[in-house]
Design a protein that fits this description.
Blueprint lengths: L1 H21 L6 H26 L12 H4 L1 H15 L3 H10 L2 H10 L1 H21 L2 H18 L2 H13 L5 H17 L1 H11 L5 H24 L4 H19 L1 H18 L2 H20 L4 H18 L2 H37 L1 H42 L1
Length: 400
C-alpha cells in the first residue's frame, strides 16, 4: 500500500510536468494541470502527515515530527489508563455477567468432550512439572500445618459409623457382599488340600481317609451354604449380617470403647505421619505414579479430570438453582477482583509498551494500521486533485 501511494504521487508529478510542457500546444490541458498540481500537493501533504507520526520525514529533525517514538511512554500510560477506565471497571464486568447466564454457558462449553479433554490435557501436562518443583520437606511442613490438626480432632469412630451407614443404605453393600461370598467359596475350593493337611496335623489319632472325608464334607457344606446365600437375597444369614452391620454402625457412633479405639488409631496415625520420612515416601510415590500415568497413552488422570468436568457440566446444565448460585458467586467475585486487578493490568500494559522502546512501538502501531494510513495518502491525492479542479473552475469563472 505504501508503494501504491508513492507511485500515485509519482504519477501526479509526471502528469504535472507533462501538462506544463504541452499546455502551450494543447490549451485544454490546464484542467488536467490543475488536477495534477492540486493532487501532487495533497499527496505530499498527506505523506508528510502520515510520516511525521512515526519518523522524521527524510531524516530531517523538523519540530513536532516522529510523534509516536517521542511520546511512546505517554502512549503506554494513556493506553493503560484507557483500558482501566473504560474496560476494567466493576460496572462493565458486572454488567456483562448480569446480561448472560455465565454458569450455563460454562456448562455448555464443558459438556463438549473436546473442550473438557483439552483442559484435562493441559492440567495433566503441568502436573509432573508442578510435582517435581514442590520440595518434599515443604510438602511435609504444609501437611503438618493443615492435615495433622484435622486428624487430631477427627472422630474416626463416628466417621467409620457414618461410612457404614452410607454403604449399607438402600442395600448398596449387597453386591460387595456377593463378591466377598464368591471369593470365599473360591478360596475354599482352591485351598481344600491345605485344610486337609492342617486337619490331619491337628487330629493325629484318626485315619487319614476319615480326615479327608470330614474335610470334604465340611468344604462341600460350606460351599453349598455360600452358594445358597448368594442365590437368595432374602436369606436368613444376609439378614443377620445386615443387622450386625447396623448394630456396629450405631456402636461406632455411640460407644465410648469404640471412640477410644478411634482416638488411639488417630494418635498412631499422626505419630506415623509426623515422621518426615513417611511424608517423603508418600510424596515420592505420588509423584512417581502421577508422572508415569500422565506419560501413558490412556492416562487415568486425564480420563478422570475430563470425566469429572463433563459430569460437572451435565449436573450444572440442568440445575437452575445451582446456576443461579454460581452466577451470584461470579458477580461477587467480579466485584472483589476487578477493582484489585484494574490497576495491575493498567500498570502491566504501561510497562510492556514502555519496554518495547520508541522504534518498536512505532513499528507495531504502523504495522497494525498501516493500510489505512496509506489510504489516507491515496484519498488525499484524489481529493486534492478534485478540489484543485473546482478551485481552477472558480478562478476562471471569477476572472470572466
Amino acid at each position: 500500500m505504501r508503494t501504491t501511494a508513492t507511485c500515485l504521487l509519482a504519477v501526479m508529478l509526471v502528469l504535472l510536468l507533462a501538462c506544463a510542457a504541452c499546455q502551450a500546444a494543447y490549451p485544454w490541458l490546464h484542467w488536467v494541470r490543475a488536477f495534477a498540481e492540486a493532487g501532487t500537493v495533497g499527496a505530499i501533504a498527506d505523506w508528510y502527515a502520515v510520516v511525521v507520526l512515526f519518523r522524521h520525514p527524510l531524516g530531517l529533525r523538523i519540530p513536532h515530527t516522529a510523534i509516536i517514538p517521542r511520546s511512546h511512554e505517554r502512549i503506554g500510560e494513556g493506553l493503560g489508563n484507557f483500558v482501566q477506565e473504560h474496560f476494567l471497571t466493576p460496572e462493565v464486568a458486572i454488567g456483562k455477567l448480569r446480561a448472560c447466564n455465565t454458569a450455563k454457558a460454562i456448562a455448555a462449553w464443558l459438556a463438549n468432550s473436546d473442550n473438557s479433554q483439552s483442559i484435562a490435557e493441559s492440567v495433566s501436562d503441568t502436573l509432573p512439572g508442578l510435582l517435581k518443583e514442590l520440595d518434599a520437606r515443604k510438602v511435609a511442613r504444609f501437611l503438618e500445618r493443615v492435615l495433622v490438626p484435622q486428624l487430631r480432632t477427627l472422630d474416626a469412630s463416628s466417621l467409620a459409623g457414618n461410612v457404614l451407614k452410607i454403604v449399607t443404605q438402600n442395600n448398596r453393600h449387597q453386591p460387595l457382599l456377593d463378591r466377598a461370598l464368591r471369593a470365599l467359596k473360591q478360596w475354599l475350593l482352591v485351598n481344600e488340600g491345605v485344610l486337609k493337611a492342617r486337619f490331619s496335623a491337628a487330629s493325629r489319632y484318626t485315619p487319614a481317609r476319615l480326615d479327608s472325608y470330614i474335610v470334604d464334607k465340611f468344604v462341600e457344606g460350606i460351599v453349598a451354604l455360600l452358594h445358597e446365600v448368594v442365590a437368595n437375597p432374602q436369606h436368613e444369614l444376609r439378614r443377620q449380617f445386615d443387622g450386625a452391620i447396623r448394630d456396629l454402625a450405631v456402636k461406632l457412633k455411640t460407644s465410648g470403647r469404640y471412640q477410644r479405639v478411634g482416638r488411639t488409631l488417630m494418635r498412631d496415625c499422626v505419630r506415623h505421619l509426623k515422621n518426615e520420612g513417611c511424608y517423603r515416601v508418600l510424596w515420592n510415590q505420588l509423584r512417581t505414579r502421577v508422572t508415569a500415568d500422565v506419560d501413558r497413552e490412556r492416562s487415568f488422570v486425564r480420563h478422570a479430570i475430563a470425566g469429572a468436568l463433563i459430569s460437572l457440566s451435565e449436573a450444572l446444565k440442568d440445575d437452575a438453582t445451582v446456576q443461579l448460585k454460581l452466577n451470584a458467586w461470579l458477580l461477587n467475585l467480579a466485584q472483589t477482583l476487578v477493582p484489585r486487578a484494574q490497576h495491575q493490568v493498567a500498570a502491566l500494559i504501561t510497562e510492556v509498551v514502555k519496554s518495547w522502546g520508541a522504534g518498536e512501538v512505532s513499528r507495531k502501531i504502523e504495522a497494525e494500521i498501516g493500510r489505512d494510513l496509506q489510504y489516507i495518502r491515496i484519498n488525499g491525492t484524489f481529493v486534492g486533485g478534485t478540489v484543485g479542479v473546482l478551485l481552477h473552475a472558480a478562478v476562471l469563472l471569477v476572472a470572466r
